[in-house]
Amino acid sequence: MTTAQDLFAQGSHAFTEEDYEEALSFYSQAIEVNGTHAEVFLKRSATYQKLGKDKEAYEDAVFALGLIKEKPSSDVTVEAKAQLRKGVAAFHLQDYQTAKVALEACKTLSPEQRTLASWIRKNEQELAKLPKTAVAVTPATVAAAAPAADVTPVVSAVASPASTPVPAPLTPAAHRVRHEWYQNDSFVTISVFIKNVKKDAVEIIFTDKALSVSVKMPTGSDYSLELDPLSHKVIPSESKYEVLSTKIEIQLKKEVFAIKWGALEGDDVNAGSMAAVPAGAAPAYPTSSKKPKNWDALAKEAANDEDKADGDKALNQLFSQIYKDADDDTRRAMMKSFTESNGTCLSTNWDEVGKGTVETRPPEGMVAKKYSS
Questions:
Q1: CA count, 13 A, side-chain hemisphere, 213
Q2: Which of 76, 77, 8 is nearest to 36 (CA)?
Q3: In which ranges do the TPR repeats occur (predicted)?
């Protein structure tokens, strides 16, 4: 029989691989097997947040706190994480008073919690926007202040929607923003694909093991990306970001040069991914061949071949480089113009190409003919 510990491990692996639906399934199965471990509820809460299910994330955090208070011997850092998780979920639900109570509780328990200062500042900014009226006591606020004796965890059902009314969530589009990452020896680069964002609408905080990204979307909603903990340490003072027309590009400076990250967030469990390359040594790459190739030598040889390119090959390389470095609109213009003109026109101006079909323009002295089978 599969144990709760095994299911938790599988869920954590899926979470690290950013397969949040699968992680949610494993964590839920682990809770069905044994629903007495607060850590599982906290991981499922984090997974719900990644999926944009803030109400469920809040409920799991509250449930985890109930389990912790039943065990006075629990590690204080676990309770601090639960309060932070509850505060973040309440913030996304726009219940800023409840978020404030939870975040302050986290600060009292463990003030060094990563990203805590950032969330407190964000929440204070939102509270400052609210009308200066008496704050109504909501069931969520009462639950936050209730003594441990009043908490009666039930594995089959956490707080019901009827008993814990919550404000409307943020605009769903904020959760559908795509991000990708890649790396080289020195940096891990994260691209967050949001168009037309103003620089003053972006707040990014680097710590040695966490990244916090907050963006005021052009639509008026808020987007947040919290990577805590990162799979490896970074150097905050040498990390940087740039706001471009089509994306936000973030560069995390690796603390250990040439270490290969097998994951962006959480525990890096990929075998061999933690071994740094000694200075002066050629990096080794996974291979099933009995005679491994010297990929660096092949890459150098290919680079030399490119240097010798001429004629059509050189022209194609130029176009490939332009396409590679172009933004989305330029790429669309190139593809549309080349396809619709039957290869006789290549334009990078989307404003012009997007107005209609691009006509075939054969070279001077030649006539375009339609192919007939």
A1: 26
A2: 8
A3: 4-37
Grouping H, G, I as helix, E, B as strand and the rest as coil, residue 250 is strand
**Of residues 162, 164, 126, the one with CA closest to residue 146:** 164
Helices (H), the chain: 4-16, 20-33, 38-50, 54-70, 76-92, 96-109, 116-129, 139-145, 295-307, 311-325, 328-340, 350-353
How many Cα atoms occupy the beta-carbon half-sphere of 18 within 13 Å?
A: 12
Q: Is the dihedral of CA 8, 14, 18, 20 positive or negative?
A: negative
Instruction: Give per-residue pLDDT as tens, 211-234.
Output: 989 898 888 888 888 888 888 999
- Describe the crossing of helices 38-50 and 20-33 by its angle, rounded to 10 degrees: 160
CB 84 within 8 A of CB 46: no
Closest CA to 95 of 86, 84, 104: 86
Rounded CA separation 331/242 (Å): 21
Output the CA torsion 60→66→72→76 (10° steps).
40
CA dihedral 94, 95, 96, 97 (to 10 degrees): 170
Cα 248-168-49 angle, rounded to 5 deg: 50
pTM: 0.56
What H or E segment, with its residue span, contains residue 93?
none
Q: What one-character DSSP code corresponds to residue 200? A: G
In angstroms, the CA 283 to CA 281 distance is 6
Q: How far is CA 122 from CA 131, 216, 262, in A?
A: 17, 12, 31
**Tokens 């399934």, residue?**
25
Model pLDDT, residue 106: 93
* Tokens linked to 152: 């009666």
| Assigned token pair, 67 | 């389990």
Strand, coil or helix: 125 = helix
DSSP symbols for 301-361: HHHHHHHT--HHHHHHHHHHHHHHH--HHHHHHHHHHHHHTTTS-----HHHHTTSPPPP-
